Amino acid sequence: MLWPMIAIALGFLGIAVLGVLAVRVFVEVRRLARQVAAASERIQRAAEDLERAATPLASRTHHVGRR
User: Fold this and answer.
1) H-type helices in the chain, by residue range?
2) Per-10-residue mean pLDDT for the chain, 67 residues long?
3) I need a labelling partner for 29 at 20 to 30 A (CA). Which of 4, 14, 35, 64 fits?
4) What is the C-alpha separation between 6 and 26, in angstroms, rounded?
């Protein structure tokens, strides 16, 4: 009777450890997702700034080519 009880206890502990690890992975994935979203937003803003800065240069280059 002792061995089955030990086996059940070890099985429960194994499942508990897996549950704790799953929660930790979930928390880290959410944190990574927030960081990816913030980086994506910064990249989008930088792309928009670059486009705004390049527009006058492109129009000047286009006019120089027509002369």
Assistant:
1) 2-66
2) 94 98 98 98 96 84 59
3) 14
4) 30
CA atoms within 13 A on the CB side of 58: 6
Tokens representing residue 32 in the block = 């990574």
Rounded CA gap, 17 and 14, in Å? 5
Cα distances from 52 to residues 23, 40, 41, 46, 60, in angstroms, run 44, 18, 17, 10, 14
31: number of Cβ within 10 Å: 10
What is the radius of gyration, based on Cα positions, of the chain? 29
Task: Give residue 6's pLDDT.
Answer: 96
